[in-house]
Write a structure and sequence with these properties.
This protein is an alpha/beta fold. Helices cover 43% and strands 16% of the residues. Pathway: Amino-acid biosynthesis; L-threonine biosynthesis; L-threonine from L-aspartate: step 5/5.
């Protein structure tokens, strides 16, 4: 398996090197040179397998020769052994056709754990025999930061520098990052939005003078290995609802398009997905792009679903690559225009092609609160604001009556206690393993959203190459 850049002008890499690289040197995103497929019989054989065995079967084609199946299985067993549910990502039925796929049973209570627990182990495994110290830089709208820090804290040969938008993450999300005092963990609060933080990370990779001094890597969903790990739970859920003999729809609350793109990969691999519902909040660039072809950047509106308060969806570039016929030069020109004008129009043919699988919905704050209240009153379940947006979008989408709809429950409700309590009157409790979170010391730096001060901060603390 070889990996190519969406912009067509970066080295072709194997799985090990693409995992350590993160962002491509030409500013593009890596993805497989070809989509591997599983046959109908191979998908059917996943029924009844454990999550670990399902993960090995789904991910092995992407790993290629970089790991043996035995090595991959050992890493998966270690990663998912830290989850507090034996099923890792259990399915819960809400009503006659709606299901929740609970992705929040990992150490930091969010779906990012599913990928990042494995990614941390992959970094450690691939660095074992290298004379290299990795400098991981990332941006977070809340959950990626805490999950990445938990996965990498204290690991040898890795330092992590995580940028988050000051005052725009929940108190639980912030403290899950800033109370980890391991010497290789560095939190940076910037005066700006998540989009600003994400742009700064990309700028650091593009700055040859800076990037040339360190072995930079990424934990955001620009890193292919993260998306690969997220493909697994689409297969795991679908076979439990009848795949491959029965198509399944998924509703995915998303801002950066990574989680829903993993569903696209599953479909390309042969999983019968009836529909991928892209659920956005009022920061609706993805809804506008898919429904009207308007991929233009607006202002970021802070909401009670902060992980979706995004206007530049990095992983959308991976879908655009396929919609451009996998023509890296054409996409590079389109992205250069977008980065200059902050606007792009999707041609009708592209919208039609995407519309065969994707649909989208824009959920406002009232509909989000109503979904939280409805889940509480009708199913005795507390759900977080992001999951509520996914559930509202699922119920607003017209699908055949015999198609089950799985909403990805992306975070534990206790990560957004205030919003859940406002909607339902009930204040969710933090699990015992997070006990004492609000008594722990916090440590982080506050910096302007400017490349100079941030690069200087990292350069003083990171270990250079050579």
């Amino acid at each position: 398996m070889r990996y190519i850049s969406t912009r067509g002008n970066a080295p072709v890499l194997d799985f090990e090197n693409v995992t350590l690289a993160g962002l491509a040197a030409d500013g593009g995103l890596y993805l497989p040179e070809r989509w591997p497929t599983l046959s109908r019989d191979e998908i059917a054989s996943l029924a009844g397998l454990s999550y670990v065995d399902t993960a090995v079967a789904v991910m092995a084609p992407f790993v290629g020769d970089s790991l043996s199946r035995e090595e991959l299985r050992a890493l998966c067993a270690e990663a998912y052994g830290r989850f507090d549910h034996a099923a890792v990502t259990p399915l819960v039925q809400l009503d006659g056709r709606n299901w929740l796929l609970e992705l929040f049973h990992g150490p930091t209570l969010a779906f990012k754990d599913v990928a990042l627990q494995l990614l941390g182990l992959l970094f450690e495994r691939f660095l074992r025999n290298r004379d290299t110290h990795l400098t991981v830089v990332g941006a977070t709208s809340g959950d990626t930061g805490s999950a990445a820090i938990d996965a990498l804290a204290g690991r040898a040969k890795v330092d992590i520098f995580m940028l988050h938008p000051q005052g725009r993450v929940s108190d639980v999300q912030r403290r899950q990052m800033t109370t980890v005092l391991a010497p290789n963990v560095h939190n940076i609060a910037i005066d700006g939005s998540f989009d600003d933080a994400q742009a700064l990370v990309k700028a650091m990779f593009a700055d040859r003078d800076f990037a040339g001094k360190f072995s930079l890597s990424a934990v955001n969903s620009i890193n292919w290995a993260r998306l690969m790990a997220q493909v697994v739970y689409y297969f795991y859920a679908a076979v439990r609802l009848g795949a491959p003999d029965r198509p399944v729809a998924f509703s995915v609350p998303t801002g950066n398009f990574g989680d829903v793109f993993a569903g696209y990969v599953a479909q390309r691999m042969g999983l019968p997905i009836a529909r991928l519902i892209v659920a956005t909040n009022v920061n609706d660039i993805l809804h506008r792009a898919l429904s009207a072809g308007d991929y233009s950047v607006g202002g970021v509106t802070p909401t009670a679903a902060p992980s979706m308060d995004i206007q530049v969806s990095s992983n959308f570039e991976r879908l655009l690559f396929d919609l451009h016929g996998r023509d890296g030069a054409a996409l590079a020109a389109a992205m250069q225009g977008f980065e200059t004008s902050r606007s792009m129009s999707l041609a009708p043919a592209m919208r039609e092609e995407a519309g065969g699988l994707f649909t989208s919905a824009r959920i406002d704050p009232d509909a989000m609160s109503l979904a939280m209240r409805s889940a509480s009153e009708t199913a005795c379940m507390l759900i977080d604001p992001h999951t509520a947006i996914g559930l509202a979008a699922a119920k607003a989408t017209d699908l055949p009556a015999d198609v089950p709809v799985v909403t990805l429950a992306t975070a534990h409700p206790a990560k957004f206690r205030d919003a859940v309590e406002r909607a339902t009157g009930q204040r969710p409790l933090l699990p015992k393993r997070l006990g004492g979170l609000f008594e722990r010391e916090e440590r982080f730096a506050q910096l302007p959203a400017e490349i100079g001060p941030i690069e200087a901060y990292i350069a003083e603390r990171a270990i250079p190459t050579g």
